[in-house]
Amino acid sequence: MIEIRCLKCGTNQEVEPPQPNDSCINCGHNLSKGSWMRISGYSKTEAIVEKLIFTYGGFWRRFAAYVLDSVLLQFVIYILALVFGFGFFLSESGFGELTAMWIILSILLPWIYFAAMESSDTRATVGKLALGLIVSDLSGKQISFGRASGRYFGKILSGIILGIGFIMAGLTDKKQALHDIISDCLVIDSKHKNE
Ligand SMILES: [Zn+2]
Question: How far is the CA of 22 from the centre of ligand 1 (A)?
Fold first, then answer.
């Protein structure tokens, strides 16, 4: 038995060395030559093939996207403050005392922004879009709002361990940050969007 991955749906499965008549346990795709890759003990050529399946978003590219998104969110909050007045954010009882509206906004706004954009057909926030990145599941497919939310709140974990969870995006095999690993997500090049 060897472990292989169907290149159509990305499902890993154990098979006898595949024959053209074998089909994928998940999608039924015919596992003929070139439509699967070996996971366990694969050869050098197959390892190169795996690298070609996805171009992952590296640390600095993702960091640049994050900075863009942060600036954009700050801008939106600034506009809201201009429209509604600064009393919208600061209570009258004293300087620095934030209103409930501000607390709700500071949690809700980024969450909805990241999770809705990354689970939409765009599959990316404005920052990721600008840097040519999309978020996907482990087989390169669009993720649900629920999974995108899990990924978003996973960033709290990535952050509280001194940001090491974020730095992991530069160190792990598939360029996964801790919140990507928790939510079974990848950040990959947008060229894979229509594959
Ligand atoms: Zn399959």
Answer: 11
